[in-house]
Each structure stands twice: as C-alpha cells, then as structure tokens.
Amino acid sequence: MRPIALLHGLAAATLLGAGAFAQTCNVNLPTLFLANNGGSIGGNVYFDVTVSSTVTLTGIDLNTTTLVGNPIGATVWTIAGTYVGNTASSAAWTNQTTAAGTSLGGNQRSFCAFATPFVLTPGTYGFAIDANNTATTGAMNHRYTNGTGSNQNYADGTLAIALGGAQNISFSGSVFSPRVANIALYYQSANALIAEFTGTPISGVAPLAVTFTDASCTTDVGGITSYAWDLDGDTIVDSVAQNPGWLYTVPGSYTVSLTVTDASHPAATKTRTAYISVFGPEDECAGAIVLPGYGSVAGSNVASTTSAPAWPCGGGGKDVWYSFVAPNTGNVEVNTCTGTTYDSTLQVFDGSLGCGSLTSLACNDDSCALQSRVTFAATLGVTYYIRVGGFNSASGSFTLTVLAPGAFSTVSAGCGGTTLTASGTPAINQPVTYTMAPALGVPVIWIGFGPGGLPLCAGCTIGSTLDIVFPGAVLNVTIPASSSLIGGVYFVQGADLGNNLGCAVVPLDTTLSDTISTVIGS
To answer: Is the pTM of this model over 0.85?
Structure first.
C-alpha cells in the first residue's frame, strides 16, 4: 500500500472510531491505466459500483494528461441504482465530495484525496467523476480506455465496478460508451476479507525470478488462515506460502491468482491477468536469433517489448531481433508477406560494428498488404540485424523470409529480328527456359559466364562468352541446388545460322538474339 493511501486509511479510521480501526481493511480497487482515448477539460466519466458490505470511500486515483506537478481536482457524484439514463442532468444526483491532488502525467495513478470521506451501504450506485475546469480548482481532463466487453468489470469481493461512459461536458451532451474510466477507488471496510498482492519484478528476460508479496486484509480478529497461489495461470495451486517466489523459464504472459480464507468470510480471490511478462533474449539486439542463411523461420512478438532505437516507420513496436551473415554480395530481400497474422513492421540494420553502433538500412510497414518487405544491398561476410515488430505495437505470429531475389534482364539487343525471352524462376534448384524466335536457319543458344562485346557486324554484337553451346531454339535448364551459386550471374544468347536477315558472314549469314543476364536467387 502506498504511504498516501495509508494516511487516508488512518483518517477514515478516525471517523469510524478507534475500536473499528483495529479491525478495518484499507484497500483500493483499480481498473486499468492504459488509456487509448480521452475527454475534454471539465468532462465526466461514469460507472456503477456495487457494494457488498458497508464501506467508507477515502480517495481516488485518476488518469490525466495535465502537466506533471500541476494541481488536479474533481467532484464526486453518486446516484442510487445506475448512471445509465441519468447523464443529462445532475438534479437527481448527490454531490458527495470533492477530490484534490497532483498530476503524475498520462497513464499514471494520480491520487486525489476526498475532502470528506463518505459511507456507502450495501447496494448499487452510479458514479460520476466531474473533472474540474478551472485552474484554481485543478483543471484536468479524463483519460480513459475504449471498452471491449472483457475490460469493463473489476471486483475484489467487497466492491464491484462496472464501466462505463464519458461526456465532454458535465451532465450535458452525448455519452460516449463503452468507456473504461482509468481510476482506483480507495476505501475501508469494517467487515471484509480482501485478497491483494504485488510481484517484483513483473517483467524481464527468461529465466525471470519473481517474488510475490501478500497484501491481503481481513477484519476477522483471527487473521487470514490460508493462502493458495496459482502463479502461472494453469488453475493449479503452486504455493501455499504467504509470500512465495517463482521462476519463469519460458517467455510469455502469465496470469497470477491469490485465494485467501479466514474464519468468518467466504474465500476471496484476486486475479491479475497477464500480470507477469517474460521475454526471450531475442527481445533485444544482443540476444538476436541467428539465421542460418536464406530461408523462412516462424516467430511471434506477442510476449515482446519495444527496444531501442526508435522505429522510423509504422510506429513499430514489440519487436523480435534476428541476425544474418550475408553468404554472398548482392541484393537481399527480407519479408513477412506470408504466414503473418497481424499488421507487421520490418527494419534492417548494418551490424558490422555490433549492436551498440547500428546503421539503419531500410524500414517498411505495408509493402504486401499489411505485411512488410525490404530489399538491401548486402556484402559477403557482413552481419545484418533484422527486427520484426508491429504497426503501433500490434502483435501476433509471423513468418520471416530472407531471400536473394533472382532476376532476368536484357543487357544487349539482338539483330535481324531475332529475340530471346526467359521464363521460370531464376533461383537455385528451379527450372528456367530461354526461347529464341524466329528460328529460320540453324538455331543455337549458349551460356556464358562473362560479358561479351565482340561485334559480328554492324549492329550485331556477341553479348557474352561462348562457354557452353546448345543446339536448338529452346534451352531448358535447372539451376543446380548449390547455395554457393546464390547471387551469381550468367549470360544467355542465341544465334540463327543461315538467316540472311543478319550479318553476311562466311560461311553462313547469321542473326544474333538479345543477351539476357540471369542473377541466381535463393
């Protein structure tokens, strides 16, 4: 419990009397502090609170973007039943108290003490938290989270909070719903059993050792009689100690639950969903997964965090790192185009100087629909770092593919109307076909491993060396399945011997086709 919360507990205990203080639970029930929306200065947030036993409310945590250190404040209103249908006027509401505190900034729990703590007896109440709109009373706006159904209910056995809505003008205008007010209600109870705990640390790289500290409370003079901890979310009791420790060895998000009992109340359970986040070493550059070469690997960034440096594209986040040593000099393509379930981002770095001195080479958000693709010029033997993330920190499963893109390109034109076309996939272990047309004489096609440039006659140039010559107008070959060939280049050209539309050479007139260079891909 924070010191300020304890002070409010002491103050409220004084109101109840010294005898009650010895058996009073001082606790708080938070919703969440992960805003993705917000209202105007002076607006309201609404929610319903169900009370199972009499409580005294002493304060509230609020989420606001008011500058850190500035005063903030609000007015607390309640109505019997529900806020729903009662947001057009404050006439039926009870002005319970005002709250005042200091802003800690967005997505932080900024505590505001109630000027007058107030009592709620068992029942259901609508709440309106009316943000102040003048600087003298601590002007502020509410930050809140869009409701999804699964994030709108919070309970601890004594209080239950159901959320909710928001207005930009207090008790006036449209109500935005569902909205989850980012709050925590501080209260004390003279008759309760409440489960509560904290863990330290709650995130880190596997193996992660976490110490859990019980913060439960009972008003029973006999105290808490048993503890049952589920520390990995599998519904199996892992410890009955009051303050256990647990070692998380597998990356992932873990839900933790504590159930406590005493002699006079039903058992109470506190569950923190996805409370522990355990990351693999690949969450940072220094722990990058080594890629063996070209090919595809499956991965996930669900349990990842966002690492430095900041992403220059797509608001990237929740990234996983890989390292790749270029097996040849040439263009390399990296993509997540297939087998990826979310909106990905992708970045490649020159890592020749190590993780401490990375140079960004390329970054992409959407190249193939919502997936990503980059191409960069690689140098044999250089280490490159690849990080896969998500647009605005989206997450899911992905397939990372690294390949050397093969390519056909015409490097010199033919003569006499003879052409050469290429088809197929220019990659190792793949078939390719070269077709020369028209063939009016005796056609031949050759493969050369070096460029040519020898004129046969004006306008007719032999475009490559004649290393392997094949008869016919069609050449079908399968590129050998050798990784040493990736990035290599060879040339193909054809001649039509006896075709009188070309060069008048002895003993036969000849035409030459285009010369096509082929870059071998992976």
So the answer is: no
